[in-house]
Write a structure and sequence with these properties.
With 411 residues, the chain is an alpha/beta fold. It is 37% helix and 16% strand. The protein has helices at residues 24-34, 71-74, 90-102, 122-128, 153-159, 180-203, 213-219, 222-231, 264-273, 288-293, 295-307, 311-320, 331-336, 338-342, 386-394, 398-406; strands at 15-19, 38-43, 58-60, 66-70, 80-84, 105-108, 133-138, 207-212, 247-251, 256-260, 324-327, 346-351, 357-362.
Length: 411
């Protein structure tokens, strides 16, 4: 769907005041924007979101030259309009209050308690807008002994346990290769906001949403966390699955592939292709439960068999037998994959920088039959929409804007 589309998303008519920066908050509000909500991104005059300076790489213009816009900022800020307001000034605080009075949602990721200093906390804004949904995303939530600490993705991955189960058994703990703690906090926040907006539309009552990144990291430990709770299983297994065997990468004669025999029937078919139909009859491998307990013995048998033939042989045979399998792609291979291309997972938008620059963006994976995701605004320049938004929402005129700009309240 192009940015010029007139189709309206499922959250069309919802206005979000976005006082977030870095990644957890912006990824949340970008999802809401993709779904059709109007996102008003509040940024500091002259500086803006810190991720504007998380570079290189930068967006390149049509001549191949770097622009001022970082790829990091582009990743989480489409479908937003940027308004530069100084929150340290009383006039700036009043502008935010007036905008919040007309908004459906406020999202912020300041440290716990910080916005209360500006009169912009939940307790302040709910008085002027009782139907407001106010979502706070912090490292550790609003309560508990760590509530005042700042939160960072790497820190949360370490404290939340995922690093202890990532990496080889005899190696160092490893973080996930993408900032998963930030992104999942943003995802939980977006889901929570949608639920609260629905309730507010029905009941007229807003509410406060407390999203702690450590909470979300513990929650998405999922099966690994439950395995620990119920059986105190050890941590790192490398690329092995803790509960299913075989379910891991294998070296072939010319590379590496992933093989997933997700149940006993698939394991039997895999063994037929591997010319070892006897293995499912072996009491040590006859069911998934015993294979999990004997994973090393099974690996010693299967590894040389898979390594004796090229990847293409295994992928063709396994796919024909309805057994999960696939390559381990580089990023170059991902973006050249015919399925990824067919699913249009890259969208090109026109960015305002340098008078108009094509910007390729990772697409949203959400697909709706009637109210599809829309791509309306490329990630904005700092303060690009200050005048536009304040005129539309607060009825300020040119003279009003001039006074605020002269006073340094807006830029």
């Amino acid at each position: 769907m192009s940015e010029a589309s007139s189709v309206k998303g499922p959250l069309d008519g919802v206005t979000v005041l976005d006082m977030t920066r870095i990644l957890a908050g912006p990824s949340c509000t970008q999802m809401l924007g993709d779904l059709g909500a109007e996102i008003i991104k509040i940024e500091r005059p002259g500086r803006g979101d810190d991720t504007r300076r998380f570079a290189p790489p930068f967006l390149r213009d049509e001549s191949g030259q770097h622009t001022s816009e970082s790829s990091y900022f582009l990743s989480a800020n489409r479908n937003k309009r940027s308004v530069a307001v100084d929150l340290n000034s009383e006039q700036g605080q009043e502008l935010i209050k007036k905008l919040a009075a007309k908004a459906d949602v406020v999202v912020e990721n300041f440290k716990t308690g910080n916005l209360a200093r500006f009169g912009l906390a939940w307790d302040d804004l709910k008085k002027i807008n009782p139907a407001l949904v106010y979502c706070s995303i912090t490292g550790f939530g609003q309560t508990g002994p760590y509530a005042s600490r700042p939160g960072y993705d790497f820190l949360i991955q370490g404290m939340g346990g995922v690093m202890s189960v990532t990496g080889e058994p005899d190696g160092m703990a490893q973080k996930v290769g993408v900032p998963i703690a930030d992104l999942m906090a943003g995802m939980y926040a977006a889901v929570s906001i949608n639920a609260a907006v629905y309730r507010a539309k029905v009941s007229g009552e807003g509410q406060f949403i407390d999203i702690g990144m450590l909470d979300t990291a513990v929650a998405w430990l999922s099966i690994v966390g439950m395995n620990y709770i119920h059986d105190n299983q050890p941590g790192r297994l490398g690329n092995d699955h803790p509960n299913i065997v075989p379910y891991r990468p294998f070296r072939t004669a010319d590379g590496e592939i992933i093989i997933v025999a997700a149940n006993d029937d698939q394991f039997t078919r895999f063994c037929e292709i591997a010319e070892r139909p006897d293995l499912p009859e072996n009491p040590e491998f006859s069911s998934n439960e015993v294979r999990v307990n004997n994973r090393e013995k099974l690996a010693a048998i299967l590894d040389p068999i898979v390594a004796s033939k090229p990847s293409a042989f295994w992928l063709e045979q396994l796919e024909a037998s309805k057994i999960g399998c696939g390559p381990i792609n580089t990023l170059e291979q991902v973006f050249k994959d015919p399925h990824v291309i067919a699913r249009e997972m890259i969208q090109t938008m026109t960015h305002s920088v340098n008078g108009g620059t094509p910007a390729q963006m990772l697409a949203s994976p959400m697909r709706f039959s009637e109210t599809p995701v829309t791509y309306r605004h490329a990630p904005p320049l700092l303060g690009e929409h200050t005048d536009e938004v304040l005129t539309e929402m607060l009825d300020l005129n040119e003279a009003d804007l001039g006074k605020l700009r002269e006073a340094g309240v807006i830029s």
